[in-house]
Recover the amino acids of this structure.
């Protein structure tokens, strides 16, 4: 009956409208059932952008609440939900899908392949991730359950036991948190396997591992780390589900279980996760900086080695998140030293990027501006990282806003700056049109200024003793002015993001036509039309050096002679 | 031109199926490690009985069957590479049979533990970690058996030929992994833990 009514409704529409509707529906259908790596890449990125706006709004609400002491803008309960959702969303439903989106789109093009290794697995992984994100937010609707309790998860993004136990976390908010991460974790593992397989098995003739663009090398390391670091989280989530539904005692301290074990398991995932997020950022910088310095990357092999070293060391540093737990001092010393070791390969990377800039003919287009911003902020993030790695210093400042400032320098100041650079750099390839440079510069300066106001300032109240995750504070502790400046910075950042989104929408229709290679770049994706055709390459390219397009443009002086 | 063609001809990369399954194995190993660590960490920390010493006996028959199934599946893959489908189907069916014997053994052990020894996941930390670790492995055997049976059905209706050797080999790789994990689980639960 209902189907009939629908048909009638469609029948009375004028023929042209009906055609438009069915064409729009056909197009939507095409996108939903697609297994094309480029479309899935774009879907990943759009989905992550949507969540970026949501998590950004959550962050703004948090900052508004903290703007002045004794504020009543949101309730303590809401505040807890906001910082939990902000953290979880940014890590799992903004950072990872956004990076997977870029890898999905670019890796097959860069290695000269027609698609990713397992296209259907790719689609499955995307929909799992997307479903996971919806599940997290469905908590607002469905979490009250039988207890009539709770609306969104409020246990923090690392969800320490025993707070997550049945007794302390009533309703189903924690369950939605667990399930959404489980589901999206399956998707992440699938995509990581896909990226590894594509890079190892689908390279075009001549592209040995040593001739791959650094972007592919770094994404290979990142995906390998996803394969090894996400399953521990999945395992811990299964245990937590068991505790909540089957009466098991993994993290149940009353039956002899250990709450600290959850911390070990979580950070065994959680710290490599930081590098999983950061390595693709380095990958963007390693592609963009050479092109805008008009030089090939300085120290290619060392760059690969340093990335591998970081990947290797990063799985043995997790307990530096747990110095205040009271581990044996030998353990603390080990994790302090291993954390400090990370600084060596990281320093090598920074020197290599500076070495690439050195003596180059630098073009300060928007992608390059964001990369320069990244270099400065990444250095600062690294320096505060070294400070926090020192056990006594950490005892003093653990769980203060100093820590919050440190990791936002990493994830916003470094990762998001490179991501914005990547948007400006590859948007022409994906859409065929350039992003507007003038708006891009507005975006950069607004966001940069806002970022420094919010997060550079945030170090100070931390040093003065302000804990993180408190919903309000007393006046007279000297924290007021810094908090006010921090919150004011959010306005500028939001304005920057607005300019960015406006730029995306405007340039999509009216941007300058890009042509296949607007930046005069050197990797294979720029040898295709913009946007690239279905299946990317009519004939598979053959490669003899790390910069195949340089060789094509300068046959008199090919790179292969020098490598 | 001809030089290019030869360059493309000798351009050999590892097969996708194997690398894909290797990625899966890496991820699964990381997950198993966490459950093994949890088991070892909670050894002897149960607040109440029963303990592993009181209730566990070595599942010798199941272990022998499961480990032998690695040999039969290798024989099956080799037969398929040769192109003899009948030998393949026979060895493949033997693999399934051995896997089923293992699962029956696990089922009997669990029913004894639950009914006679009153050990459930909620009883104590031993129950919690034991059922989680052994259960996770049993889940992998079950998934493997479903996949193996699917291939057997395909083989019996004549849909498996030499061309599929690569894919069948990838599945065999997974099965070898399940067997190897059992060696670790067996050592953890029945040797170290008892």
């Amino acid at each position: 009956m209902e189907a009939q009514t629908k048909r009638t409704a469609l029948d009375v529409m004028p023929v042209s409208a009906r055609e438009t509707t069915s064409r729009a529906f056909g197009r939507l259908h095409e996108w939903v059932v697609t297994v094309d790596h480029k479309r899935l890449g774009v879907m990943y990125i759009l989905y992550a952008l949507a969540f970026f706006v949501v998590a950004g709004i959550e962050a703004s609400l948090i900052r508004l609440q903290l703007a002045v002491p004794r504020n009543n803008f949101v309730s303590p309960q809401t505040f807890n939900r906001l910082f939990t959702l902000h953290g979880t969303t940014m890590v799992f439903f903004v950072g990872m899908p956004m990076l997977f989106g870029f890898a999905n789109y670019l890796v097959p093009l860069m290695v000269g392949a027609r698609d990713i290794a397992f296209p259907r697995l790719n689609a499955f992984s995307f929909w799992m991730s997307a479903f996971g994100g919806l599940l997290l937010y469905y908590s607002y609707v469905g979490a009250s359950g039988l207890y009539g309790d709770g609306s969104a998860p409020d246990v923090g993004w690392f969800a320490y036991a025993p707070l997550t136990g049945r007794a302390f976390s009533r309703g189903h908010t924690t369950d939605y948190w667990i399930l959404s991460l489980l589901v999206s974790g399956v998707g992440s593992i699938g995509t990581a396997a896909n990226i590894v397989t594509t890079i190892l098995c689908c390279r075009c003739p001549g592209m040995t591992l040593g001739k791959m663009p650094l972007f592919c090398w770094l994404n290979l390391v990142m995906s390998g780390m996803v394969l090894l670091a996400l399953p521990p989280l999945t395992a811990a989530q299964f245990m937590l589900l068991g505790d909540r539904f089957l009466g098991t005692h993994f993290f149940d301290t009353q039956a002899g279980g250990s709450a600290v074990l959850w911390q070990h398991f979580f950070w065994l995932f959680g710290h490599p996760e930081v590098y999983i997020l950061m390595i693709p950022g380095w990958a963007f910088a390693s592609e963009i900086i050479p092109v805008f310095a008009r030089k090939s990357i300085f120290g290619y092999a060392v760059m690969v080695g340093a990335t591998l070293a970081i990947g290797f060391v990063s799985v043995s540093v997790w307990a530096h998140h747990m110095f205040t737990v009271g581990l044996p001092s030998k353990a603390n010393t080990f994790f302090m030293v291993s954390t400090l070791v990370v600084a060596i390969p990281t320093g090598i990377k920074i020197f290599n990027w500076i070495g690439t800039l050195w003596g180059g003919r630098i073009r300060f287009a928007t992608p390059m501006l964001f990369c320069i911003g990244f270099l400065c902020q990444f250095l600062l993030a690294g320096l505060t990282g070294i400070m926090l790695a020192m056990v006594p210093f950490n005892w003093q400042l653990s769980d203060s806003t100093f820590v919050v400032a440190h990791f936002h320098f990493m994830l916003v100041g470094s990762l998001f700056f490179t991501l914005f650079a990547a948007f400006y750099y590859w948007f022409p390839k994906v859409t065929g049109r350039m992003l507007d440079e003038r708006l891009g510069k507005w975006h950069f300066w607004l966001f940069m200024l806002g970022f420094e106001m919010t997060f550079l300032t945030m170090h100070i109240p931390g040093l003065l003793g302000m804990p993180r995750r408190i919903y309000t504070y007393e006046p007279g502790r000297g924290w007021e002015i810094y908090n006010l400046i921090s919150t004011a910075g959010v306005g500028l950042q939001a304005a920057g993001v607005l300019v960015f989104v406006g730029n995306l929408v405007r340039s999509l229709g009216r941007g300058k036509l890009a042509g296949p290679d607007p930046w005069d770049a050197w990797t294979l994706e720029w040898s295709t039309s913009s946007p690239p055709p279905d299946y990317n390459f009519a004939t598979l390219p053959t490669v003899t050096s790390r910069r195949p397009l340089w060789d094509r443009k300068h046959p008199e002086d090919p790179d292969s002679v020098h490598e | 031109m001809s030089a290019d063609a030869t360059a493309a001809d000798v351009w050999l990369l590892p097969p996708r199926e194997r690398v894909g399954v290797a990625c899966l194995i890496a991820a699964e190993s990381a997950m198993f490690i966490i459950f093994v660590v949890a088991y070892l960490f909670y050894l002897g920390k149960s607040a109440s009985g029963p303990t592993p010493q009181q209730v566990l006996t070595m599942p010798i028959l199941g272990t022998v069957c499961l480990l032998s199934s690695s040999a039969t599946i290798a024989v099956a893959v080799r037969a398929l590479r040769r192109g003899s489908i009948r030998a393949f189907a026979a060895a493949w069916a033997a693999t399934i049979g051995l896997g089923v014997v293992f699962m029956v053994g696990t089922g009997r052990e669990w029913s004894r533990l639950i009914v006679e020894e009153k050990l459930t996941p909620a009883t104590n930390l031993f129950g919690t970690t034991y059922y989680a670790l052994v259960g996770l492995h049993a889940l992998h055997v079950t998934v493997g058996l479903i996949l193996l049976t699917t291939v057997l059905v395909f083989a019996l209706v004549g849909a498996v030929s030499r061309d599929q050797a690569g894919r069948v080999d990838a599945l065999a790789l997974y099965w070898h992994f399940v067997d190897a994990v059992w060696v670790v689980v067996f050592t953890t639960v029945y040797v170290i833990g008892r």
User: Anything to note?
Assistant: Chain B touches chain A at residues 4, 7-8, 11, 13-16, 19-20, 23-24, 26-31, 33-35, 38, 41-42, 45-47, 121-122, 124-125, 127-129, 131-132 (CB under 8 Å). Confidence is low (pLDDT under 50) at residues 1-5 of chain B. DSSP finds seven helices and no strands in chain B.
